[in-house]
Amino acid sequence: MSHEPQDMIRFENVGLRYGFGPEILSDLTFRIAPNSFQFLTGPSGAGKTSLLRLMLLSLRPSRGLVTIFGKDAARIRRTEMPFIRRQLGVVFQDFRLLDHLTTYQNVALPLRVQGRDEASYRTDVIELLKWVGLGERIHVLPPVLSGGEKQRAAIARALINQPDVLLADEPTGNVDPPLARRLLRLFIELNRSGTSVVIATHDLGLMDQFDARRLVLNQGRLQIYD
Length: 226
Description:
The chain is α/β, with parallel strands linked by helices. 31% of the residues lie in helices and 25% in strands. It has a domain at 98-161.
């Protein structure tokens, strides 16, 4: 008997409000399937970042069900959260690199926090930095890096744990069009290697370069175009 693969993330009738204000996200129902690629888009202020934060479990919904890797998010114990988070790679819009650490140290930080011995990951970190085009910038501090280099370092840090799902918030928002295309190719290659990818962007030109599912937020509601 065959079974459909488990969804990476599932939302069922999810709503979100801050405090006692009106809902900013309403009745969201969708799934992020294994090995899938989708763009999350919509006008500025539509709630893309809030939706990503719900997927990351850094926000709780006001109502509805969020399931991640088959677990009800509301029932995940605090002790389980580090394991869940390691399965999620996140690229933030503001990079969040630590200025006192080198490119190598920033990318290796998630593994170091886990208590891994450097000898077990050094080669992997260096190879990943070469893959994103930073092989010559391994020992450079973030203030010396260009915006595009910082973006690629942030992407490498998100990938170092080989996540099941990558969530990227406007990952091409601070780079020129040629570099945006290069970054998109990196995400496509990552998806082909088995990671589900969600890219939040308002860049229609970028989305038109790759035929992928679109999750479109508008006035707090979601439309899906496969």
